[in-house]
Each structure stands twice: as structure tokens, then as C-alpha cells.
Amino acid sequence: MVKFLIHRPIAVTMAFLAFLLIGIATTVQIPVSLMPDIDIPVISIRVPSNEMPARQLENTVVKQIRSVLKEVNHIEEMKSETRDGTAWIELRFKHGTSIDLASIEVNEKVDKAMNYLPRDMSRPEVIRASASDIPVFYLMVNKKQELITGNREEFLQLSNFTSQVIRKRLEQLPEVALVDMSGLQYPEIKITPHTAYLQNGSFTISQLEQELNNNNIDLGNLLIRDGQYQYNIRFNTRLRDVSEIAEIPVNLNGKVVSLSEIADVSLQPQKPQGNIKINSESAISLAVIKQSDAKMADLKDELDELVGYFKEDYPELEFNITRDQSKLLEYSINNLGQSLLIGGLLAFLILFVFLRERKAPWLIGISIPVSLLLALFFFYLFKLSINIISLSGLILGVGMMIDNSIIVIDNITQYRDRHFTLSRACEVGTNEVIRPLISSVLTTCAVFIPLIFMKGMAGALFFDQAIAVTIGLSISLLVSITLLPTLYRLFYSKTKQEKQKRQKDPGYYRLYERGLKFVLRNQAATIGLVILLLAGAAVLARMLTTSRFPEVSQDEIVLKIDWNEPLTLDENNKRVNELMASLSTEPLYIIEEAGKQQYLLNSGEDAGTTENKLIIKAESPAGLSKMVKSLSAYFAGNFPAADFSFAEADNLFNLAFGKSEAPLIARFSHFNPGNKNYLDELSALLADLDKNYPNSLQSKLITRQLILLETDPEKLMFYEVDNDELYREVKSAFNVNTVFTINNNNMFVPVSIGNSYQSVYQIIQNIQVGNQNNEEIPLSGLVKVNSGSGLKSIVAGKENEYFPVEFEINPSDFKTVSENIKTIAANHSSFDLSFGGSILSNRAMLTELLLIIGVSLLLLYFILAAQFESFVLPVIVLLEVPIDLFGAFLALKLFGAGINIMSAIGIIVMAGIIINDSILKIDTMNKLHDSGYSLIRSVMEAGHRRLKPIIMTSLTTILAMLPFLFQKGMGAELQQPLALAIIGGMVLGTLVSLYIIPMMYYLLKKESVYKIVKSKN
To answer: pTM here?
Structure first.
């Protein structure tokens, strides 16, 4: 084949140019995204029930739903959290589960559970997690501080304007699927009866409700026939605005008066359950969600242009784009692109240093863009996107792409130096290395196959990396054995043979030969060194920290606060202002999401007025770290009872892999969590744990205080008070008595009856309830007021309810701490104990990775045994892998990295790359020995021939990985442990390939030759 191709340079060149043009054309159509297009295996169920307390909701509703959901197939983890009035259940499925089918099955089970729930219960919402549900931007809208007048209707007008104008203009963009909003303030019509009329019995709440309903009637359309004609008649007396309600006629002791004479009627903002602020200014948040097939860069350009128009058209308002996911994408992709370019250029420069001529490096340089463009063409065919995983696979492949070209060019050059004709050198030099090149590509690709079968989302994500490397190497192999020899003959066809003189070997050849002779003479010492390296690798492995993924530097963080006190929303906001004022460094922005938020796509639990979520953006990761320390110290000094935690800002990576968890989580299950002594027992347990681990214990007992109004049935009967009347009066007293809703300017405005009392004490002492004899009975004589407490949130898993206690400990302390916790739990016999946390999940991950590495090595052995037709030679090659682990572990330790999925993949990839040099070396030694060379001469000559290509291929791979160590951004930082493992393993592995592998080969062949001679004698 090679002989045929090298004599048809025009045909070969034109064929490759055609494919290159197709590759360029398809490159612009490849989608660009942060992560591969994968199904997020999470389904959430939101259970709304505004009137049920947490314990009742858990026992009567959530427990029933969990019981039915256990029947759903392929659930990996189930977790529920129940609060007053709402509950949230999250189902995380095994990787590979069809989420479409799982969603249908979950909906069917929820329908089945409805048979066991209270009749008036609304159906729980089933929400499927999707990458497209993550907002790509948040647009914050607020009025300029200098223009704020303090009018209470001012923010109401801003809410209406933002909802009706800004939101609709954003949703007109073709790239926008939905604009989700929060922080809006809604109006209500509040009717507050004058206290005097209520107390003297001339007017009651029930009469007021009746009058309102009598004046708000809509009978719909009536069909009236009049002879041969018929007419649609609409009888409508519906109320439309606050002025009409104020003029409603009311019968007051036989006198007709308007409602405004006996009650205050006003249009006012509803009492908020939550709010949003940016830099301490009240704001409205618009979460922009893009169409699934839209390009993020196009949306970003359109949004920037539209926001520019907003600023011109509405100068009194401020518009800020925050939590910009496109920056993360752009930054990560650009940095990876720079790594690709820098790594390729460094590798290209190395060629000039070692090849010491002008033409050959350009030939190899041509192979890089050709291979990359053809690889992108196959990306398009396989429907892969350009993301931080697939792009890192291409970067990983660049060094290996050059390797194939180096080996072919160097081998052809060696045959020319031996005075072969140009055509013959191209033919023989290429054919000689085709088999080892195919073997090396297969071994490199083989190490990626087990990664695809890795459990969880890691296997799904790194499928893209495996495919990218496989495509890159396959294309590189094709280019190196077809295009390169053709272009080589074309480039050197005008160079006369006699001018090609064998150049003097560089000095490093002599150094290598002396080193190899030293190793062969001191075999025992070398074997001792190998044993030391293996022992060192084992020691370093135990010293390295273990985690699921490497830490990625962040300049944005989420601070979640629960003050653990029954605070109002205003007090919550006030404390946050004081908290932010304590910071010595001012952040770029602080977004405050206090209390319950209004986002439609919020699949998490609803927060109460005592909770707050702060999104803090700093100028740099270092500045953010200082803020975190300062905020932690502020809480410890001022609010020690408050519960607070820092978490990474939401992005697709976190959604796919789940939020990080504490190193150790002790789950305490009580045999009767509804018992009245449960809180006391739990408090005693936490006190014992805190006494033993005051610095490690991260969890607090978060409770909510309850005011219990208990009616006295005997007194209700004695005073002839109707329960409905009592309930109506109490609802009005607490401003939750909504009579009906009217439609005013495309908005639904509730009409409610309330009062102006400021405390529970005032309500109990001043409210009177009318009985059947039109007598006014004080509320204080009908109800008893008690106080109580309960858990603010009730957490449960697949099996039962539990209380999670988090510990921040080192993995090395796990055994000691867990045993001590078991001892403490044994003194509290009401609780059962189980453990979870990142330490246990990381151990499971390590076990899986070890299994994957074992399978990879087994596959490599099969391929090498088939190539060498030997069961022993592959063992020599594979022995290099455990030796090289010392170099990989040492690099990880020196640079502060640890063992995680990325570094493990780096080790697997390193194993596939480094043995390629040994494969080529052993293949050359075999051929020389078979051709009649003596054993020692075969070893020395093969070392001489393969020294330059081994050094060059190792350096090009190392230099391709080197930019990762100096780049920032999610893409580069995710790949840094991978790069460190490869670089450390390659540096040591190159020395092993050059010195130890030839010695092992010599010992093996020497023994086999000795046996053959002995058998002949």
C-alpha cells in the first residue's frame, strides 16, 4: 500500500485536502457546550401542603409517597426533606437509566400514592432535572438608589413593569426558552374593619364576607330565546378594582353605608415571604433559560445588546448580568484551546532541536492540524460536542499524534542514512513500524475502554474523552502511514542521495550507551532500585489524599444561613447587612435571596423567613478565600447558634455529579421520631458528640418555635360559638383570610380581611367572636395558648427517617472516629446508627478504579501477547507500569494534588502511552536478534536506533500536557491531576524504557538462550 501511495502524491494530497475542506465546513456546525450532552439522572418531587406542619406532613403524606416510590426501578439514592407546608423528595438513578421512562414510572407511582393521601391534597409535582433548566444568566433589575422615594407602592410598580415589559422583551429573543422570575412584589386589596364596629357587635367578619360575595357574582352566559332570535346575555356584577370594593353598600343596623365608612380599604403590597437584594438594594431577578439547541455565545451577544437598549430606554433603572455561565464556558474552552496551541507549538519546537534539519519538522507539523481537522469531522459524524471533556481528550491526543509521525519520519531517515534509495527508504521505513504503531494505538485506546463502564456520571462524561482520544489516534495513525511518507518523498525528491551524509551522533547518545552498559553490568543493583521504586509507590499511595474530583478554584460561592431563631424577614435582611458590613474587602456583588423564592423551576426545598442564601462574587479565588474565613469568624463570634454552610455556585458540573458532601455523615434513626421526648433525646446525643468532637462536629439541632392555640370544646358549647365563625375570626386576625381574587390589569389580586394587631398577645386579648345569640365572646376565653418546638426539617432516606450529623475529619481518622461514635450511640439506645459521607464513597470509587486499572492491564497483556507471540515478553512491558506509578504519585504529592477520578484516568492513560516506547524497543530488539545480531549487540543497537524517537515522543507528550499546570478555569483545573500523573509517570517511564526494559529483555533472552544451548548439549 505504501509503495502504491508514495508514487501518487497528487491523488493522496487531493484526497486529504477534500477531507480537510469537509472538516473545516463541519467544524462551525459542531455545538459548543460546557459539558457533554448527558441525561441528568435526577428526578425531584415537590409536595405542597400549606396547612400541614412538618411532622403531620411527614407521617401522613411523605412517608406514603416514599413507600410507593421504592417500587421504581434503578433508584440509587432517595432522600426527602419535610418542612412546615412543603416537602421535597429527590431520586437519583443509576447511570444508564432512561430518564424519560423513569419519569413516566415516577408519575405513575405518584398517581398510585394519591389513593393513600388526604382527599383535599393537591397532586405532588414531578420535576425532571435537566441541563437546559440551569439559567445561563441572571439579570438583576433594581431602581437607582438616588431615585428611590420610599413609597411603599414604588417596588410594586417596578415588579409590574419588569413582569409585563422586561420579561416579555427577553422572551422574544429566539435563543430564550423561558425567563423565570423571583423577588416580585404582588398587590392585594386589604379590608381592615374598624375595631369599634366589631366590638359592639353591629358588624361581624362573617357579614363582611357575605356582603363581599353578594357583590361579586358571575353567572356566566345565559342563552335567551326571543321568537326567531336568540341572544347571549351575560349577568356580571364582578368587582374589578379597589374603588368598587370601597363603594359596596353594607347594612349596618338597618342603615345602608358604604364599606369604606366601616373599614379601611386599600391596595397595598402583600406581605412578602421572601425577597431578593443585590448589594443591599431590593431587586428583581430574571433567570434566563436558553433553548436546548441554541448557542450560548449567540444568546450572550443578543442579551448584551438588549440590556444596552434597556439602559438607554430606562435610565432610572439598573441592570446587572450576574452568575454568567457563558463566562465559565468561554474561559474554560479558551484556556483549553490555548493549552492545545501552546502544547502543540512546544512539541513542534522540540522537533527542530532533535531532528537538526529544516524539512522533517514541518512534515510532522503538518500532521497536527490535518489530524485535528479530520478528528473534528468525525466529531460531527459521531454527534459529539466541543466541551471541556472532549477538548481535553484532543489535547491529550496531540502529543500522541506527534509520536506516530516522529516514529515514521525517524525510521525513514535512518534507512536513508543507510544509503537506501528515497522511495525504498519511504516504503521499508514505513512498513517496518506499521505493526508496532497499530499495536501502540490499540494499547492506548484499550486503556480507555474500561472507563466507559465506570459507574455513575463519571463513566458517562469520560465517554467523550475516550472517543476523542480514539478518534485522534486513529486519524493520526492513518495520516502517519499514508500522507507523511508521500509528502516525505515529495519534499526530498530534489535532494541528491550523495549529499545525504550520516551526521555525527549527538553527545547524549554516548551518555546513553555508557548508562546502558552500567545498568547491564550492575543488574543486581538495578533490580534493587526497581524494588525501592515499587515500595516508594506503595508508600506515596497511602500518603496521598483521596477525593472524588479535584478542587476547582472559584471566585463565586454560595453562603446558606439559618439563623435558628424565629426572625421576621426584615430582621433577616438587617442581620445580613451587618454581616456584609463586617467584610474588610468589598466583593464585586452580593445577591441576597432571603426566605421563599418564586422561581418556577426551583426543584429544591422552600426556605423560611429565617433563612438566607447569599451568592458572593469576589475578584479572585484568593479574595474569596479571605471572605470565607472572615464570615466564618463573624458567625462564631456573633451568632454561634446559627447554622451556616458554604457551597459551590450552581452549574452543570454540580448538577451532574451532585453537591459535595461532608467527609463523614452519621445517620441516627429513632425508633419513634414522633415521640414527645424525641427532641430531648436528640439534643442529649448531640451534646455528647459535641463534647467528644467540638471542632469536627458540623451539624446543629435546628428547631422552630411553635405557638399552639388549642380550643376548649366545653367553652365553645357553653357559649354557643360556632367553630367556623371562630376559625374565620382567627384567620382574619392573622391576616390570612382571603375571600376571593379579582383580575386587575392582567394580574390576579386577592381580596383579604385583616387587622392591624402587631402581636399574638394583642390578638388574643382584643379579638371577639360572635355566638348564636349575637353576643361577643373574647377569644381569650375560648382558646388556650401554649408553646412548643419541633424539628425545622425532617430528613429521610430510602429506608426510614434519620437525623444527619456531619463531621469534618481526615480520612485517616475514619476508623477511630466511627468506632467512638458507635460507642456514644450505644449509650443512647433509642437510636440506630449508619454511616455515609465522602470518605466511604471515595473508598468505593477507589475500589472501582483499581478494578478498572486491572482490566486495562489485562487488555494490554492480551494485545501485547498477540503482537509478540509470547506470554513472557508482555510481562516485561507491563512491569513498567507499577514502576512508573512512583513518578506519577511523586508529581501528585509535590504539587499538592491527590488521587481522584482525573488523576486515576491520568495513570491509566500514562500506562497506555509509556508502554508504547517499550513496545517499539522490544520489537526492534526482536527483529535485530532474529536477523543474526548477538543478544548484547541487539540490545545496544536497538537502544541506539530508538533513543531519539523515544526521547522525542516522551517530550512531545509531556510538553502537550505542560500548559495544564499553569492555566486556570474549570477545564484546565479539572485536567491538572491528569496532567501531573502523565508527566510524572512519563519522566520516570522514559528512563525505565531506555534502561530497565533492555536489561529485563537481556536477562530473559539470556536465560532462554542458555536453556536452548544446554538442551542441545
So the answer is: 0.77
